[in-house]
Prior knowledge:
mainly alpha
Amino acid sequence: MTPFERGLLDLLPRLRRFARSLAIHPADADDLCQVALEKALKKNGKEYEILIEEAEGHGFEKEDAALRFYGAVEKFLA
């Protein structure tokens, strides 16, 4: 894992707390985090993929969707 990636992961809890302090709804806070992470990844030349699953909203509760998500995360972090 690169120093940038480690730093980004270390900042996630604080980013989520800050986003939740700004947004009324948790889903809006998640959207703020996503936009911030996309900008950071793009600025540092890191490729990423956005996963959207039908009828899932802001999480992956269905088993097949969760497996696809965790597979993508593992690939991203490899």
